Amino acid sequence: MTRSEMNQAGHDHHHHTAGPAQPMSARARRITLWLLVPAVLITALGMLLLWPRDTPQSTEGAGPERAFGRIVAVTPEACPEVPEGETPLTGCGTVTVTLDDGTGVTSEIPGGPGAPEVGPGDDVTLMVLENEDGTREYSITDHQRSTQLWLLGAAFALAVVAFGRWRGLTALGGLAVTFAILLFFIVPAILDGRSPVAVAVVGAAAIMLIVLYLTHGFSMTTTIAVAGTLASLAITAVLAAAATAAVHLTGVADETSNYLTITQGDVNMQGLLLAGIVIGSLGVLDDVTVTQSATVAELAVANPRYGFRQLYGAATRIGRAHIASVINTIVLAYAGASLPLMLLFAAGNTPVSELLTSQLISQELVRSAVGTIGLVAAVPITTALAALLSARAPHPAADASDGDVARGDVARDAAAGDAAPAEGGGRRPPEENRWAAFVDRD
User: Fold this and answer.
1) Could you write out the DSSP letters of every residue in 29-55?
2) Cβ(67)–Cβ(99) under 8 Å?
3) Spatial distance between the Cα atoms of 208 and 275, rounded to a whole number of angstroms
4) Backbone phi, then psi, for 94, in 5-degree steps?
5) DSSP-derived secondary structure for 243-269
6) 336, 384 in Cβ contact below 8 A?
7) Whole-angstrom Cα distance, residue 412 to residue 61?
8) Which of 300, 276, 244 is nearest to 438 (CA)?
9) What is the DSSP code (8-state) at residue 424?
10) Rounded CA separation 359/248 (Å)
């Protein structure tokens, strides 16, 4: 056999290996539908059964009246003296404000812990108090910040679209879907007395199904990520329920939860804690599952001869590195949210054992531990599914007839330094194999 015939045989062998692409595509569509249709039907049924029907409505006119205006001038004044031994007063004076309806009013300069610092030109919110004689008093409570937030949101959207283009636009659409499900289903359903855990699981499944397919497209990679996310969510919910019961957490650990129990006594606070763990885990779970699914798909394309074992091993090594960084991200996120509380405990010289076993810190520890276990479970589950469906079936007949030719072709390429013809008939130096780090490693 001449050299050109060997080259042609080798090329025919490679084309034969890539041949079953169309059957795999049809198989992928079938598997996608087998998973997607039941998942959508079950999620839709769950939302229908849990949909809020008697959500508490806000009472018109409840709470103090508010007004909006712009500060015209700030007039500092000397503070009155206080008895000896007491903390001197600071920040005394008056503020002149022009309300949105053109009325000019005066108010005291805000004071006390967390009071806003105001100056001329600031847009502020004022609380209006009615006196018995019919006069009105105004007190500045906060800055108006809607304009700044809208500008920040616009900058965020432009940055996402400028970098991600169409993918960035779909990501923004997924974010809108997430907020819609949270505001119109999850929160009202919990207020309506539905089981917070059931609402969280169904709502998280709805968010995941819509957002993943909207953002990443209707593909086999997305379907595998959906399957891995669903399985990991179920594991997270079960672990959260077991850990919460074992640690005896009530879900009432701060002022917000205390106030909620007083104003909305029908809400199951322990269930609300579980719901928060499930929903909080979803944001990181879909990141891990999509990454693992896409990694296996890319490895399968880079080396079509990889079987299940090679794909699983290579992608799992990548998943370990990803999980190592994500775990730190989760812990830092919870630590950052609890930083004021940690400072308060540190200033009070609270023993570490008492600090870690307190209700509030125990909640954060359970969140971190359960969320991390769910993430760790997501890696092997998603990777195994992706490797199982991405590994190409062998073709014994083709291998028997073309194997010697292909091996000779590979050996010849290796002897030639794997050089390839360059433009103009020359030879270009061999390129570094990007996937060499994953070949034949245990």
Assistant:
1) HHHHHHHHHHHHHHHHHHHHHH--SSP
2) yes
3) 15
4) -125, 160
5) HHHHHT--S--SHHHHHHHHH-TTS-H
6) no
7) 85
8) 300
9) G
10) 9
Q: By C-alpha distance, which of 428, 329, 327 is closest to 369?
A: 327
- Under 8 Å between Cβ of 186 and 278: no
- 281 touches 292 (CB < 8 A): no
- What residues contact residue 417 under an 8 Å CB cut-off, 6+ apart? 429, 430
CA distance 296 to 156: 31
In which band, very low, low, confident or very high, does the pLDDT at 329 lie, cut at 50, 70 and 90?
confident
- To the nearest 10 degrees (0 to 180), the angle between helices 146-181 and 196-216 is 100
Nearest to 289 by CA among 213, 223, 207, 378: 378
Helix 21-50 crosses helix 196-216 at what angle (to 10 degrees)? Answer: 150
Q: In angstroms, what CA-CA distances link 186 with 51, 176, 191?
A: 9, 14, 9
Residue 309: C-alpha distances to residues 144, 315, 442 (Å): 59, 10, 10
pLDDT, tens only, 206-247: 998 898 888 888 888 888 889 899 999 889 989 988 988 888
Distance between terminal CA atoms of the chain? 38
Q: What is the rounded distance in angstroms from the CA atom of residue 154 to the CA atom of residue 157?
A: 5
**Among positive and negative, which fits the CA dihedral 277, 282, 288, 289?**
positive
Burial label for 274, CB within 10 Å (0-12, 13-18, 19+), is buried
Q: What value does the mean pLDDT of the chain take?
A: 77
Above 70 in pLDDT, residue 435?
no
Whether 392 and 386 have beta carbons less than 8 Å apart is answered as no
